Amino acid sequence: MTLRSDGSPARTLATVLVIAWALGIGLAAAGARTPGAPAKATAAKGAPSAAPAAAVAQAGEYVGQDTCLTCHEDRNYKGTLHATTYNPRTPASTQGCESCHGPGKAHVDGSGDTSKIVNPKNLSPQRASELCATCHNRGGHMLWSGSQHDQRNVSCITCHSVHAPKGAKQLKAKTEIELCGTCHRNIANKLNRLNHMPVREGKMQCSSCHNPHGTANVRLLKVGTTLNQACTSCHSEKRGPVLWEHPPVVENCASCHDPHGSNNERMLVAKPPFLCQRCHVTARHPPTPYDGFLLRTSGNSNKMYGRECAVCHQMVHGSNAPAGKAFLR
Ligand code: HEC
Ligand code: HEC
Ligand code: HEC
Ligand code: HEC
Ligand code: HEC
Ligand code: HEC
Ligand code: HEC
Ligand code: HEC
Ligand code: HEC
Ligand code: HEC
Predict the structure, then answer these.
(1) Average pLDDT of span 220-248
(2) Which atom of ligand 6 sits closest to the CA of residue 221?
(3) Is the pLDDT confidence value at 85 over 80?
(4) Using a 6 Å cutoff on CB, does residue 147 contact ligand 7?
């Protein structure tokens, strides 16, 4: 401790020099950052060209967070769970900055040599994620490796920020709609439709149904192993089994409902009665398909109005009544 405070003025001078020096390197590196050139730049600094900084740094020694902060005051992570110590696995409880950036002695001895410290931003997305996954590898994170996002180069630090988070859970955006919407614009837009899950209203999140960290279900659905299991985890009354099943209901809720939103009532994918008539065009009853002409000229107009088919076929999700074969009761 005394050693350090004694060295303070010298260090301040060193810092100034180091920053000036690093700016020079920065410029040189920026100049070299043309396609094909980065490897050369690294090699010039004496680091093995194929190995990322991690490999270099991991062999080194730790200096402790206080030392890092003498030069990087602005790189704190206060106010996040990482900075708390009630949990023995947080960075603050373990190696501090160096839990993520790797041992920093060589970087410090080299007066801030950037080739001797891990900057997750410069790692491949998969390597960056592996770094976080050294701690975050349980529970809802177990299936990350090889998941849809991992495969497509979306990494932990695409969505999360350690040093400057904007939303809860250290997200890079204030809300999930905003975050997910940067890539899934079409989905976020559906939430503006007349009928939608109450995500915009804040009663629900994308993550109520999806786990962006990987799942055992299709489409990153959080619960179950089939789409329907995901729906019925909340809408349990639709789970069945029922005496009289309606095949599309058993098969896939999304054949009639758009889970993100639609301009039709009850988020239906088509406006009734056309919803039903996509499949029931040849039904004995009623004479189908209904169009404007039939509506005006036949007694079948009652099948077009109000809740249309479902006025009579109330139990469209299936019936438990002994005489419920036609879902009328
Ligand atoms: C003597 C001052 C000094 C100390 C102590 C220091 N650094 Fe640095 N560090 C620098 C300078 C200078 C740079 C280059 C300019 C910049 O990015 O701020 C740098 C850059 C970095 C970078 C970015 C690397 C890159 O590729 O752009 C990281 C990450 C980093 N330091 C982490 C740490 C950590 C973690 C510690 C503690 C183990 C630490 N530093 C201690 C001076 C220091
Ligand atoms: C939980 C992991 C984690 C911890 C702990 C952590 N960092 Fe970082 N740091 C990152 C990540 C990830 C980045 C990459 C960009 C970002 O998300 O801001 C980064 C970027 C940096 C950079 C480079 C900024 C740039 O623009 O390239 C510096 C410097 C830095 N951190 C210093 C520190 C210091 C000093 C500490 C300790 C006080 C620290 N970090 C603690 C994960 C961490
Ligand atoms: C040294 C272990 C360690 C490393 C490395 C680490 N974390 Fe954490 N992280 C933790 C612990 C422990 C918690 C707190 C969990 C708790 O108490 O619920 C946490 C919490 C979080 C949270 C939850 C914040 C909240 O408000 O709920 C996020 C998000 C997170 N980490 C992202 C990351 C990312 C991204 C990285 C990689 C850049 C990373 N972590 C690296 C240990 C680590
Ligand atoms: C596509 C965006 C996205 C990616 C990629 C992502 N996350 Fe998250 N993460 C979220 C969202 C949204 C939440 C909040 C909802 C929730 O808790 O599931 C979250 C929550 C968390 C939490 C706190 C809740 C919990 O489950 O403990 C941690 C920790 C976390 N993420 C770590 C990580 C790590 C580590 C990675 C990389 C392996 C990662 N995240 C990749 C979006 C993402
Ligand atoms: C009520 C549950 C639920 C909510 C809330 C929800 N989703 Fe989905 N999402 C689903 C289901 C179910 C599917 C599968 C639909 C299918 O395969 O027909 C899906 C599919 C997807 C797909 C991939 C298929 C496609 O249509 O492109 C993406 C991307 C997606 N959702 C993103 C989001 C985002 C972003 C949010 C938040 C704005 C969100 N979801 C909110 C249930 C939900
Ligand atoms: C940086 C861009 C990016 C962000 C941000 C992002 N995603 Fe994705 N997401 C992707 C890519 C790329 C795919 C793969 C698309 C594909 O396979 O067609 C994907 C796939 C998905 C899928 C479909 C998986 C499947 O099986 O088809 C879902 C669901 C999804 N993301 C949900 C989310 C949610 C929820 C969020 C916000 C927490 C989010 N994504 C944020 C890029 C992103
Ligand atoms: C996380 C719980 C949850 C999951 C999972 C879920 N829902 Fe919902 N659902 C809700 C909530 C909450 C509402 C809004 C109820 C309200 O506003 O009164 C809702 C509303 C609906 C509505 C509209 C009801 C109306 O009155 O307009 C339909 C249809 C629906 N959900 C179908 C589905 C389908 C299909 C799935 C699977 C893709 C699904 N839900 C998954 C919670 C969930
Ligand atoms: C064959 C088309 C079809 C399928 C498949 C279907 N639904 Fe529906 N659903 C409807 C229709 C039509 C309505 C409106 C009924 C009404 O207004 O009485 C509706 C209404 C709803 C409602 C809101 C009213 C209520 O009854 O609570 C929810 C919630 C719902 N469906 C959930 C589901 C779930 C969950 C599944 C999958 C297990 C599913 N639906 C499959 C056609 C379907
Ligand atoms: C995705 C295709 C599909 C959609 C959409 C659909 N159905 Fe069906 N429906 C079926 C199939 C398949 C059967 C079983 C037919 C069989 O057993 O001959 C069935 C059976 C029925 C039966 C019972 C017939 C019988 O004799 O057992 C009724 C009533 C029915 N559907 C009404 C509706 C109504 C009302 C809607 C609109 C809300 C609708 N269906 C939407 C595919 C669909
Ligand atoms: C005014 C009430 C009413 C309306 C509206 C109605 N149905 Fe029916 N539907 C019935 C009755 C009654 C039966 C005969 C039940 C039986 O045979 O036990 C029936 C039987 C059926 C059957 C099974 C019999 C068959 O033909 O094999 C299907 C499928 C069906 N309706 C589909 C529809 C569709 C699709 C619509 C909307 C376009 C619709 N129904 C509107 C009253 C109605």
Answers:
(1) 95
(2) 29
(3) yes
(4) no
CA distance 64 to 13: 21
Question: Residue 66 above 80 pLDDT?
Answer: yes
Mean pLDDT of 205-209: 95
Nearest of 229, 222, 232 to residue 141 by alpha carbon = 222
CA of 101 to the centre of ligand 1 (A): 10
> Is residue 206 scored above 60 in pLDDT?
yes
Which residue's alpha carbon is nearest to atom 24 within ligand 5?
A: 219
- Of the listed ranges 39-43, 166-170, 244-248, 305-309, the least confidently predicted one is 39-43
Residue nearest (by alpha carbon) to ligand 2 atom 5: 97
Whether 20 shows a pLDDT value over 50: the answer reads no
Asked if residue 49 has pLDDT above 70, the reply is no
Ligand 8 lined by 316 (C-beta under 6 Å): yes
- DSSP of 89-130: TSTTTTTTHHHHH---HHHHHTTS-GGGS--GGGS-HHHHHH
- CB-defined site of ligand 3, < 6 Å: 81-82, 87, 89-91, 94, 99-100, 120, 131-132, 134-136, 156-157, 160, 162, 169-170
Take residue 68 and report the two structure tokens written for it: 């890092």
Return the structure tokens found at 319: 């019936």
Contacts for 81-88: CB closer than 8 Å, 24+ residues apart:
81/170, 82/162
